Amino acid sequence: MATVTVLRNRWHDSGYDAELPLRVRHFVWLSTGIFSAAALALAFLGYTWSGSFSDAASNFLASVGSGAMFSLSCVLKFGPKDA
Predict the structure, then answer these.
(1) Please, which residues have CB within 8 angstroms of residue 47's CB and are 6 or more apart in sequence?
(2) Residue 83 is assigned to a structural domain of this protein
(3) Which one of 17, 30, 33, 70 is least enclosed by Cβ atoms within 10 Å?
(4) Residue 56: which domain range?
């Protein structure tokens, strides 16, 4: 039991408990932006290769949904301060 207490005290003394929510927020901001860009690129590539919007519709829908999540994370200021 003493080992758990020592580890808990080390965790709080290191400052990671305050830094972890910030890292999670930055991860959410970055991952939604990257997924939005990748889904939009796949949609355009799918349209270019197949020539019809029906084959690329799911990628367009994913990119629009991810773009909405990215804009929400930007409005809530999840990203870094200098971005």
Answers:
(1) 53, 55, 56
(2) no
(3) 17
(4) 2-75
